[in-house]
Amino acid sequence: MSLNSRIPEGPLDKKWQNHKNNIKLVNPANKRNIDVIVVGTGLAGASAAASLAEMGYNVKSFCFQDSPRRAHSIAAQGGINAAKNYQNDGDSVYRLFYDTVKGGDYRSREANVYRLAEVSTNIIDQCVAQGVPFARDYGGLLDNRSFGGVQVSRTFYAKGQTGQQLLLGAYSALSRQISKGKVKLYNRHEMMEVVKVDGKARGIIAKNLVTGEIERHGGHAVVLASGGYGNVFFLSTNAMGSNGSAAWKAHRKGAHFANPCYTQIHPTCIPVSGDYQSKLTLMSESLRNDGRIWVPKKKEDAEAVRKGTLKPTEIAEENRDYYLERRYPSFGNLVPRDVASRAAKERCDAGFGVNKTGEAVFLDFSSAIERYGNEEANVQGIDNPSKAKIKDLGEKVVEAKYGNLFQMYEKITGDNPYYTPMKIYPAVHYTMGGIWVDYNLMTSVPGLYAAGEANFSDHGANRLGASALMQGLADGYFVLPYTIGDYLADDIRTGAIDTNTKEFEEAEKEVKERIDKLINNNGKYSVDQFHKRLGKIMWNKCGMARNAEGLKEAIKEIRELREEFWKDVKVPGKADQYNPELDKAGRVADFLELGELMCVDALNREESAGGHFREEYQTEEGEAKRDDDNYRYVAAWEYTGEPSEAKLHKEELIFDNIELKTRSYK
What we know:
Elements: H1 15-22, H2 28-31, E1 35-39, H3 43-55, E2 58-63, E3 80-81, H4 93-103, H5 110-130, E4 155-156, H6 162-180, E5 183-187, E6 189-197, E7 200-208, E8 214-218, E9 221-224, H7 245-252, E10 257-258, E11 263-269, E12 292-296, H8 299-307, E13 320-321, H9 323-327, H10 337-352, E14 361-364, H11 366-379, H12 387-413, E15 422-431, E16 434-435, E17 448-450, H13 468-488, H14 502-519, H15 527-542, H16 548-568, H17 580-604, H18 628-631, E18 633-638, E19 647-652
Parallel strand pairs: 1-2, 1-9, 2-5, 9-17
Antiparallel strand pairs: 3-4, 6-7, 7-8, 10-16, 10-18, 11-15, 12-13, 12-14, 14-15, 18-19
Helix pairs in contact: 3-6, 3-13, 4-5, 5-13, 11-12, 15-16, 15-17, 16-17
């Protein structure tokens, strides 16, 4: 069965403008009578709530954190893409569009990606106006750096804390609307269910996480901006509270879930240190601008490094394998994330890993420090500077660009990356899959929208670095505020949504029954034990590499684990009080279903594309091998009761403006 993506007619570069020109509008007086619920306060949610309120709608904003500023967008480090071409290096809207489609291994919609590239330039102007302190060059102009998968510098940044600064900008806009009374903020509230009335999303059931109270909230439309589901793997770079429950609840109520197997493995993370670790820490991809990735050429050197009898700084240059530069000369260390991750895994699997577990490679800044030191010496007119002086000058330049990241690394590992190379290894980071949406960002449930990482729309099978922040703000500031009016224009006579109806009553009853089942289950094992076991199944059999046999095993094991969870999980405390263990149990219960669907999707997709790497489908050189004849589609799954019995709907991907060809970064 096919899906209607509602892509506008006309030339690619005119679709969005023509669509805006012809879309239905809601006049200002009528907007005052319409309520919109926004779940999530990250970049997509905060920008959407602020924009919709600024336009005149009444907005209810929900976040499970104690403040919107705690949303996980704050953790993004490296930057945000925009086709401004400030570096005069050949960038353009089309180039950003092309790089994004190619980076996603030709598994995204042309129309959505072009719109994203088109509005990207507006995002920077918006954020500068909000006071976001982007880095600037010597002349005071906004600076840019490069990210993986591109050959231009289009990434705007604020040291290594770009997400934090952008979120503070969106939060300031949101706070203004809260103070005006146009946004009502519900912090420490978690969405437990979507409520449908006559087939349309008309509200949510929310839980007050402090008191345990279950609440009904009505709205003419519901926007999910609740982030991704990377924590299904237990160990990921996501905050421990990040979860996929809002999206999964929407899926159970009829929203198709698209491409769940597309998971991004980030190549530059601090490696796993032990079985009792609760999360992983990201080292920004921006470090690959100046850091060079390598392993020893000789296995005996790698073994000596692992034993601690040889320091990396003692390995001569000619005995180092800069494997990304060797394999991909055109892009070098700035290949896309999926390519860099698999290359690191290949070297470690071959026995060249450099930490005790053998699962780490080096990220080395010595060359950059020397290069910058020489440049600074020239600028300062220092003739024949000593090596110590060059190192000192170079370290100051690197500190100005990446200082907080270096500090974070040293605090976690105890190693000073100015003197010894960082150790990194791939880890789960972002999910390209998510709730299926059409061009207007509406799901398959009328009135239910999804924005940012919660939807599937813009990244295909692999996300290029610095594009998550771009998509979140594009959706919230510049797409959803236009497109939601097309739906709400038919609701101006609906009146306030009554929550005293059988639909709200039944949804609330379902929520309470599920909570009672968890709290009254007299099991033996903690929630975390089940989550860890699920994470190991997912990482080992649906992680960086997958195969049919492993996926079939994973599906069987997850089913058994889910059955065991509902029989043996132990949730302490009570339901009508602050109980984070109960909240966690509900999220893990959803992960136990979502994880199975991810494996089903991965088993169905008999090709390799981007972050989905099936070992049976690879080139002789170990690269991803797509099957465009049979799998050039979005896999959108309809819930039927059991994840393994989900119904597949296919949205064919049409490429009229880009030639389909094998990705090459050589």
